[in-house]
Write a structure and sequence with these properties.
The protein is an alpha+beta fold. It has helices at residues 29-35, 40-49, 68-74, 78-81, 86-89, 111-122, and strands at residues 3-7, 13-17, 25-26, 54-57, 63-66, 126-133, 142-151, 154-161.
Length: 162
């Protein structure tokens, strides 16, 4: 069976052909080089080159940073999101409940929280996990894909609409 492996972050082909691998997505050498550096400016520069909105989160889904595309999509500035929970930042309908983001009955099924928690726990990235997100003021739930990659203690979170 022919299988193509592509970088989950920049979408470049990593390997094409019959590798026998079941994994279709990974991280290319260039992206890994950027992720493994300690220089924040270099990492921010790399993130800003990605077209898709990408958030940097910790294991509790607190926002550590974001690329320009995410900030533009969210219509927010870095100080507005840093340290906030993802549900508050994306304006999840349940984040406004008295319990707050991550603590309502509905949060147990949150594809964003569950995917980040799984990646934080086992260190394995996830690619395009399907789910729905209830947003404040929206007539219906947004249909989304969630991808994650853990580098050190930071989880790179990409959310795309389907």
């Amino acid at each position: 069976m022919k299988m193509k492996q592509v970088c989950a972050w920049c979408c470049k082909t990593i390997e094409e052909g019959d590798s026998g691998a079941e994994i279709t997505h990974g991280i290319c050498q260039e992206c890994f080089g950027y992720f493994s550096r300690d220089e924040c400016e270099t990492l921010q520069g790399f993130l800003d080159r990605l077209e898709a909105p990408v958030l940097l989160v910790d294991g509790n889904v607190s926002i550590l940073g974001a690329n320009r595309s995410a900030l533009k999509f969210l219509k927010k500035e870095p100080p507005e999101i840093k340290g906030s929970l993802a549900g508050d930042v994306i304006e999840c309908a349940y984040a406004r409940h008295p319990e707050g983001c991550g603590k309502t009955l509905h949060c147990s099924g949150c594809v964003i929280r569950n995917t980040v928690t799984a990646t934080n726990g086992d260190g394995r990235g996830r690619w395009r996990v399907e789910g729905y997100q209830e947003l404040q003021g929206a007539a219906e739930a947004a249909s989304i894909y969630v991808s994650t990659e853990k580098i050190g203690d930071v989880i790179f979170l990409k959310v795309e609409t389907r």
